Structure to design on (653 residues):
């Protein structure tokens, strides 16, 4: 150790353990330490031992009590030499005179060199450091004492300089105020010296150096960027002029209003900001040890105009725990720790134009015990104030990325339909897989595993697989827009279905067992959409067509060691692809553009048709009046040059 204090740790139960410290001088003849016993105490010489007990770990602190200052004339209780303490210590941990642990410490501590004398309060006028040197030793900052790592300090004795002789200050600190510059002939500091350097170098003494020192002019500013905050406006009046779609919702403390949401990696982020007019429904897994409460529900929200509104919170108790407790580990039945936690939170934002009018929150509480895994659910829905039901009309009627695709079954009594993909759980079997809706703009691929026996009938297998895939699409039409009305057939596009196979075609391959061709194992859902407009700068996206097709595979039974009484697996998948097309077909190229490509500005670097582009109204780099004046001036100069270059013009003179 090189300081007056050192810490160590004793691992294990410290009850009944006696800690002691012993000074262990080295035998001069043998050079070995004397044997230690458990008869020591917690104080030895100038050393103290302090033990802070813990549950399974105890902190052991060894500290020096003597003064470490260098001796001044006629002073006592100080260090006479720079190397003040050189001792060997032993720390013992004993129980009933039996040594449990042993720690050896070699202490070499040097005296403090900081100045403790009287300092004059007379002000010293320091000249401008840029134009004249401050002193011959710039690192000599303390009067009457040695400054560490300052080799030019006259107060440093040779013994003290040996402590830091290898790490002295360089540059300005240390007296080097005139370093040789690169242009000096005697300087070879450049890594690659050019051949012409001896002809153009400078012959000068170091007293005439252009070096003025390393100094910084200007004020220092400490960056202050708190998380999830934006700078406040200093102008009087209301802070906000309203929210736009996608803007983060702010609180009264000028922070983001956050609710747990899923990240791109699939994990839940507890402090994710809520965006205006963007609904979401997320589920997060947690257990009692990692459970954390979110923002308190008494936080007031900025309405968008500078006013603040309070959340209307309703608390309810969960009755069906099975919807939230997804797994229960084996835990002891006695003394199980349980806690009342939040199982779900449902937020309903009532909005109008660019402002939030009201916030309704429903919180479901329940008891979570150790060993149980909780599936928390957080939903956010924005409801227009002009709407009379939950199926409200957004300010932007088009689809937004991440929102469920609207479906309808026109052949059923209940027109409301669904367009889903699988969400496997457990072993990934189709029998236990659940459904999740198709989200607009997000290409996805999901699947499950179907158990098939070796004696499976191929026709029944095709029908079973087709039924599993068709269960994902309980609809005949897809809504063009997010606010498509069920009563208006023009708001919907019919799903184009391509049959997986022709049932009348003979697909038999003999009496082969364990092989079935033309199994429709892949469902392909393609949705074609386009931008048909914009609302407040947000593109209005509309679905134009939907096609469903199947891809077939040849299924073959996979045998292990034996093929008797075994089951094979057939993976079936469903893919969703969103294809964006122009809202209107592009204008066809003319025969002139096809034949004379040299005049096509899109395919050539030189565009002659745009020679006079700065004189047209499409050019916005300068005011049109200036462009016209410059163009006329240029035309006048060209005309004048043409006239003066004509031979008959010279005859006039």
């Amino acid at each position: 150790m090189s300081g007056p204090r050192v810490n160590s740790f004793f691992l294990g139960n410290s009850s009944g353990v006696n800690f002691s410290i012993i000074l262990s001088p080295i035998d001069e003849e043998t050079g070995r330490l004397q044997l230690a016993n458990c008869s020591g105490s917690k104080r030895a010489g100038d050393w103290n031992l302090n033990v802070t007990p813990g549950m399974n770990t105890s902190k052991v602190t060894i500290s020096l009590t003597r003064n470490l200052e260098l001796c001044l004339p006629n002073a006592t209780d100080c260090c006479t030499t720079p190397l003040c303490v050189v001792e060997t210590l032993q720390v013992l941990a004993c129980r009933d005179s039996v040594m449990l642990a042993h720690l050896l410490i070699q202490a070499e501590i040097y005296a403090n060199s900081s100045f403790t004398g009287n300092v004059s309060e007379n002000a010293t006028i320091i000249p401008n450091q840029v134009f004249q040197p401050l002193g011959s030793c710039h690192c000599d900052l303390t009067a009457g004492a040695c400054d560490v790592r300052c080799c030019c300090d006259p107060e440093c004795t040779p013994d003290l300089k040996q402590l830091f002789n290898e790490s002295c200050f360089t540059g300005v600190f240390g007296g080097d105020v005139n370093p040789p510059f690169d242009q000096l002939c005697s300087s070879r500091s450049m890594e690659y010296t050019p051949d012409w350097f001896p002809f153009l170098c400078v012959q000068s003494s170091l007293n005439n150096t252009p070096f003025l020192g390393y100094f910084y002019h200007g004020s220092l500013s400490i960056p202050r960027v708190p998380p999830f905050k934006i700078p406040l406006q200093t102008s009087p009046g209301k802070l906000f002029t309203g929210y736009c779609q996608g803007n983060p919702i702010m609180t009264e403390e000028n922070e983001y209003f956050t609710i747990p949401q899923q990240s791109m990696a699939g994990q839940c982020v507890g402090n994710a900001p809520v965006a205006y007019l963007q609904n979401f429904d997320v589920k997060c897994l947690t257990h009692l040890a990692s459970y954390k409460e979110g923002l308190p529900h008494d936080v007031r929200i900025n309405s968008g105009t500078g006013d603040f509104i309070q959340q209307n919170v309703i608390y309810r108790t969960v009755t069906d725990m099975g919807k939230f407790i997804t797994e229960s580990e084996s835990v002891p039945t006695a003394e199980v720790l349980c806690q009342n936690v939040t199982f779900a939170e449902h937020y309903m934002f009532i909005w109008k134009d660019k402002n939030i009018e009201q916030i309704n929150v429903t919180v479901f509480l329940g008891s979570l015990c150790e060993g149980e895994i909780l599936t928390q659910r957080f939903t956010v829905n924005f409801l227009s104030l002009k709407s009379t039901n939950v199926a409200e009309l957004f300010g932007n009627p088009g689809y937004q990325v991440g929102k469920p695709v609207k479906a309808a079954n026109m052949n059923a009594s209940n027109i409301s339909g669904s367009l889903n993909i699988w969400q496997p759980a457990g072993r990934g079997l189709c029998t236990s897989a659940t459904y999740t809706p198709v989200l607009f703009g997000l290409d996805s691929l999901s699947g499950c595993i179907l158990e098939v026996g070796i004696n499976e009938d191929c026709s029944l297998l095709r029908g079973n697989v087709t039924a599993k895939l068709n269960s994902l699409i309980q609809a005949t039409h897809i809504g063009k827009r997010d606010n498509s009305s069920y009563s208006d057939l023009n708001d919907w596009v019919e799903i184009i279905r391509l049959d997986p196979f022709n049932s009348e075609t003979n697909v038999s391959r003999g009496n082969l067992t364990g092989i079935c061709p033309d199994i429709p194992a892949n469902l392909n859902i393609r949705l074609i959409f386009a931008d048909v407009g914009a609302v407040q700068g947000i593109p209005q996206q509309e679905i134009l067509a939907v096609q469903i097709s199947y891809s077939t595979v040849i299924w073959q039974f996979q045998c292990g060691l034996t093929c008797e009484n075994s089951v094979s697996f057939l993976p079936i998948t469903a893919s969703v692809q969103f294809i964006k097309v122009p809202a209107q077909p592009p204008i066809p190229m003319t025969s002139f553009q096809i034949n004379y490509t040299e005049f096509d500005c899109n395919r050539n670097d030189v565009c002659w048709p745009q020679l006079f582009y700065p004189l047209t109204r499409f050019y916005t780099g300068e005011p049109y009046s200036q462009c016209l004046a410059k163009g006329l001036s240029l035309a006048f100069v060209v005309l004048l040059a043409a006239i003066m270059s004509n031979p008959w013009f010279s005859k006039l003179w």
The two ends are 103 Å apart (CA to CA). Confidence is low (pLDDT under 50) at residues 214-219, 228-239, 388-394, 503-507.
